């Protein structure tokens, strides 16, 4: 599977699809998100990556107002929705939708698929008649590769890949300008992950919505994203274009993430140098002073433990590291020297698309055999 090439979306004069300004989200003493600022242009796909517990999913929930931030602001298409009441927020709900990690947990098991997909139309679509709503639901299902008859089934009658397609169809019913995709493939079988990623890429290219793609899967990031933001323990440590970040990652944490990603070529995989991080894992309950990564960083110096690094421009992107110069050069924990050229950067590959699609088709066929469609 090759990297997606998308046509540019005309955005001149249009406000950003999403603006986060110094976003903070604390749960009592837990500092889940601490000062995240991020901008996504219309039609742009920005990946938010990091380990479990980095706070990336919390950012996504703040964007769609499932959580009310402790401080900072969230702007959707130029409107600050951070502290709007439910009534005042309602007109802006159409602008943003979310696809959750677990499709089984995000679909109401008591509702038919058609009711699930049509729920945004009922809540946000105004006075639509039943026939018109059913027509749009059928179109939405076909758009994600499902037959209209699926509308008469319950979520438990579908495979995992089919359920996630239903979730995507529901999210796109309101025609949002921004889609938050929170680990949309991590709960799926490996055999169907690539087909769901292909679906998201095709829909984004055809419709042109902006996307905040939250994941820890670097293969998916390389395939889908235009820009990448890397989070560690509630803070952004590096931002840049996909090409720049994969070719010359600047922050030691980003370099360690790329080094941990598997390479399809077994010869190259064996030749790679393992990056050993420190075992002093900090907690969001009591983050360490200075750079939050210094307790694990193999190249940390004394300054790292006392002074918080600012997120600043360096070599085409932004990075929060004292050891990176303004031109983007600095230590590379993968080779023990300076930042290496693109030839030394691990190449992350996805699964065989055709094989994954065939496997998902077989799964769907088995499901249909067990749960035949109702007659008209």
> Which fold name is given in CATH as the topology of the largest domain?
Rossmann fold
Beta content: 15-25%
List low-pLDDT spans: 337-359, 363-376
Oligomeric state: single chain
Report a brief summary of the structure:
With 376 residues, the chain is of the alpha/beta class. It folds into 2 domains: 18-232, Rossmann fold (3-Layer(aba) Sandwich), CATH 3.40.50.300; 249-344, no CATH class.
List the defining traits of the structure above.
376 residues; alpha/beta; Rossmann fold; 2 domains; 8-stranded mixed beta sheet; 4-stranded antiparallel beta sheet; 12 helices; 14 strands; 32% helix; globular; ATP binding
Describe the structure.
- This is Peptide/nickel transport system ATP-binding protein.
- GO terms for molecular function: ATP binding; ATP hydrolysis activity.
- Residues 18-258 form the ABC transporter domain.
- Keywords: ATP-binding, Nucleotide-binding, Transport.
- It comes from Terracoccus luteus.
- With 376 residues, the protein is an alpha/beta fold.
- The protein has two domains: 18-232, P-loop containing nucleotide triphosphate hydrolases (Rossmann fold, 3-Layer(aba) Sandwich), CATH 3.40.50.300; 249-344, no CATH class.
- The protein is 32% helix and 19% strand.
- It is built from twelve helices and 14 strands.
- It has helices at residues 56-63, 86-89, 103-106, 113-124, 130-143, 160-172, 190-207, 218-224, 242-247, 252-260, 266-271, 353-370, and strands at 18-27, 30-40, 45-49, 71-76, 79-80, 96-99, 178-182, 210-215, 227-232, 235-241, 312-314, 317-319, 331-332, 337-338.
- The strands form three sheets. An eight-stranded mixed β-sheet has the order 6-7-8-3-9-10-12-11, with helices on both faces. A four-stranded antiparallel β-sheet has the order 2-1-4-5, covered by helices on one side. A two-stranded antiparallel sheet has the order 13-14.
- Strand 9 (227-232) and strand 10 (235-241) form a beta hairpin.
- Helix 5 crosses helix 6 (160-172).
- It is globular, with a radius of gyration of 22 Å.
- The chain starts with 17 loop residues before the first strand and ends in a 6-residue tail after the last helix.
- Residues 337-359 and 363-376 have low confidence and may be disordered.
